[in-house]
Amino acid sequence: MRHKRKAPARGVRVAEQIQKDLAELIPRELRDPRLGFVTLTDVDLTPDYAYATVYFSVLTGSAEDSEKALNEAAGYLRNLIFKKMHIHTVPTLRFKHDVSVERGAEMSLLIDRALQGGGHADAAGAGGDGDGD
Questions:
Q1: Which of 37, 38, 55, 74 could bond to 98 as cystine, CB 3.0-4.6 Å?
Q2: Which helix (H) or strand (E) holds 7?
């Protein structure tokens, strides 16, 4: 899990603007077949604005393939952001798959199974079903 440090207000605004701009640019500008349907979940900026780590989750497609496609297009996306934002330093973009969304969904599923099964979660799905001998 990522640890958030308290960022200056300007840094928060820049990160939010980068996330908003990328959310518009990625589906409109990138036509890479490896790219699945991605959702940007967070942007972490270094204090000097040199680097931005952009976290994403994947609804469809491969997370690994999407990460490769996004990182290969990072320079192109950075140039597009530079034209939109008109700030002195546009950070170098690095994309990372955010596994916290999937982990949360898995935990929720396990909890639902435990509640439905009377408190016994069977992660392998190979429990007694009452049909046997």
A1: 55
A2: none
**DSSP per residue over 60-112, as a string?**
ES-HHHHHHHHHHTHHHHHHHHHHHH--S-PPEEEEEE-THHHHHHHHHHHHH
Q: Is the dihedral of CA 115, 119, 123, 128 positive or negative?
A: negative
Q: Which domains does the chain have, with CATH numbers?
A: 9-116 (3.30.300.20)
* Cα–Cα distance measured from residue 67 to residue 133, given in angstroms and rounded to the nearest whole number: 50
Tens-place pLDDT, residues 23-67:
999 999 999 999 999 999 999 999 999 999 999 999 899 999 999
pTM to 2 decimals? 0.74
Q: Are strands 37-45 and 92-97 parallel, antiparallel or unpaired?
A: unpaired
Percent of the chain scoring above 90 in pLDDT: 59
| Count of positions (residues) in the chain | 133
Q: Which residues contact 100 (CB under 8 A, 6 or more apart)?
A: 1, 41
